[in-house]
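Quick illustration for those who missed Monday's session on complexes.
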Amino acid sequence: MMSGKRVNVTRSSMPELSEFIEELKPVWDSRWLSNRGAASLKFEEMLKQFLEVEQVYCFANGHLALEVAINGLFLEGEVITTPYTHVSTTHSIVRNGLTPVFVDVEEQTYTINPDLIEKAITEKTVAIVATHVYGFPCDVDAIEEIAKRHGLYVIYDAAHAFGVKYKGIGIGNYGDLSMFSTHATKVFHTIEGGLVTYKNKDDDKLSAMRKIVNFGFSSPEDIDYIGTNARMNEFEAVMGICNLRHIEEEIQKRRLAGERYWERLEGVPGIKLPKPGLDTVWNYAYFPVIFDGYKMNRDQVQAKLAKEDIYARKYFYPITNEAACYAEKYGEIDMPVAKHASECVLTLPMYADLTIGDVDRICDIVLQ
Ligand SMILES: *Cc1c(COP(=O)(O)O)cnc(C)c1O
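Prediction with pyridoxal-5'-phosphate bound:
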């Protein structure tokens, strides 16, 4: 009984094909297709402006950006993190030979709980890796204060937070470095891609990262690190240049969809709508809804929507410490807030071209 078009949880924003081709022409003619050509360098300059950060470095995808950035700090020991995130966050710690120490998240934003960070610190702790879940900023001030006091690195998984500002500052300015994913499913995309942002003063500290991304080469005959290949290519940079020209309109369109969801769902008993705090300029990356004590449970709502060809997703389920590859070691850790959220959350479709009519159709089905 399908009464409308298929609606996925997200849909990639695209520039006009003519705009893409125009921007691609110099790349095509130059035959410089990867390895930091003119398009990548231009893209990084545009990103510095837009994100209001001092340094931006592009990668093949968000995961490798995070994994290589952590690799380049040459850490050993324990890293405090949360399980209410994409499994990529946890993998980036463990694949670097580090031990994740999971702590729970806060009720309102589902970001790491700073009080629990403090309690989890041991003499082996070297860093905090925290996610700005749904584009909601972590309690960055409290985290910075703790990190300073204990001499820890702060690394943000800002995969959801492109364009977010906190207290008037681009979110990429907080911590030692931030990773943004520019995957096709994110607010802003380069087909596949990722970025690391950091400050000028940390340029030396992150010089290894910028070599590891390219097999560890520091010059054609000097291979200083056991590197990998995590380079962004020029076609991706061209897509980024085009999409960046339209990002403000695209976020405004998301905002209209988000406001409609709020109008329709706010105050309904058993439905909770997580929101960023007043200090945040948000990007409407996702529209998470917590079904807790509602007449249907989360899985029932998801199934009901799927029957109508609408595909909402469980971001995040399972929590990462319970993923099959981590469960044996970390599955028993008590994480009540994250666990409960993962059992009750459904992220409803959210993208720039989602119409008010689409939102109404989705809300009608949820509320019926
Ligand atoms: C998407 C995502 C990643 C991984 O980014 P890719 O570009 O897909 O590799 C990492 N962390 C979070 C929180 C994400 O949502």
